[in-house]
Specification:
141 residues, mainly alpha, elongated
Length: 141
C-alpha cells in the first residue's frame, strides 16, 4: 500500500504540473478553487455511480451463474477513471493551497500600502498592520 500511495502522489504531482501548464499556476480565488475541486469530485462520484451499476449487474450474473466478463472489464475501467478523477481532485486541492500561500506576500504588500495611508483613522491602520503581520508570518515571508 505504501508503494501504491507513493505512486499516486507522483501521479498527482504530474497532474498538477499538467493542469498548471494548461490553466495557470494559480486559481483566481478560493471560489474558483472550490468550483474546480467540486467539478473533479462530481466527476469521480459519477464514475463511482457507474461502477456501482456495473457491480450490481455483476452480482446479478453471479447469482444466475452467468457472469459476463465484459461487465468486469467495464468495472475495471470505471474504477480506473474514478481513481483518475480523485487524483485530479487531489492535485487541485494542492493547487489551491499553493496559490493561497503564494498570494500572501502580494496581499501583505497591498495591506501595507493601504495601512500607510495617513487619511485612514489610526485604529483602521493598526488593524491592517496586524493583518499584514499575520499574513506575513503565515506565509513565511
Amino acid at each position: 500500500m505504501k508503494e501504491l500511495l507513493q505512486s499516486i502522489i507522483e501521479t498527482e504531482n504530474a497532474e498538477l504540473e499538467r493542469a498548471s501548464a494548461k490553466f495557470g499556476r494559480c486559481n483566481n480565488s478560493h471560489h474558483e478553487s472550490y468550483a474546480v475541486i467540486l467539478e473533479e469530485r462530481q466527476e469521480a462520484e459519477d464514475m463511482a455511480v457507474e461502477f456501482d451499476k456495473l457491480f450490481s449487474d455483476f452480482w446479478d450474473g453471479v447469482k444466475r451463474n452467468g457472469v459476463n466478463l465484459e461487465i468486469l472489464r467495464a468495472m475495471e475501467t470505471a474504477a480506473q477513471r474514478a481513481a483518475a478523477e480523485w487524483v485530479q481532485a487531489a492535485a487541485m486541492c494542492r493547487k489551491a493551497t499553493r496559490c493561497d500561500s503564494n498570494r500572501a506576500p502580494e496581499i501583505a504588500a497591498g495591506i501595507r500600502r493601504v495601512s500607510e495611508n495617513n487619511s485612514l483613522p489610526y485604529g483602521d491602520r493598526q488593524i491592517l498592520r496586524e493583518a499584514m503581520s499575520y499574513i506575513t508570518q503565515r506565509s513565511g515571508s
